[in-house]
Amino acid sequence: AGLNPDNAYKLGLGGTAIAFIGTILSWGLMRIAGRKHIYLSGMTGMATCLFVIGFLTLAKGNQNAVWGQAALCIIWLLCFSLSVGPVGWAIPAEVSSTRLRSKTVVLARNSYYIVQVGANIIQPYMMNPIEWNWKGKTGFFWFGWTVLTIVWVIFRMPETKGRTFEELDLMFAAKVSTRKFAKYKVDAYEGERGEVLESEEKENNSNKD
Asked: Which domain holds residue 186?
């Protein structure tokens, strides 16, 4: 909104290229950094972009602010393509149990598509000048939902990087806090069922004593 059709087309084309590049880069990023860290960093970057987009709407009639909003939309898309987009496909398959993996993935993706349909329905109303006409203030709306997601990620999303399916099953069975998944040591092949060992944090404390 606020850009002529020619510039809007160029930005759309550039955004598609940015998303493509970001997705490719995410393949290497997921081999280096943890899933939770990538997801949390991406959501934080996206939340920042959305808030600033909404804030720039207060500068009415300023063409520079419009271009700033457009640039932030591209940055938002890059953050999404590097983090939330690809990681969102990996997490359901990694955290689900072996027996329920197919059902978990189907349930996760269908839930996503249902929410996406709802978002796609209300988004045009927010932007349409003859409907709600929120313009860039739409960023504040999605910023709120992003913050809620960040809170969920901090407290509920487990770190699965470097874990086998057996290790994850044992940690869930032992009711290990999702915030401690990254530090816990697991021996999935100790005995018949495996054993969840003490976390590195507890070991360090006991060594100090």
From this structure: 165-208
Tell me: do 36 and 100 sit in the same domain.
yes
For the domain that residue 70 is a member of, what is the CATH number? 1.20.1250.20
142 and 185: one domain?
Answer: no
Residues 79 and 123 in one domain: yes
Phi first, then psi, for residue 195 (nearest 5°) are: -145, 135
Give helix 138-156 / helix 101-127 axis angle, nearest 10°: 160
Angle between helices 63-82 and 35-56 (to 10 degrees): 170
**DSSP state for residue 184 in the 8-state scheme:** E
pTM greater than 0.85:
no
Blockwise average pLDDT, block size 10, the chain, 209 residues: 74 90 92 92 96 90 85 94 92 87 91 94 92 91 96 93 87 87 80 56 54
E strands in the chain: 184-187, 195-199
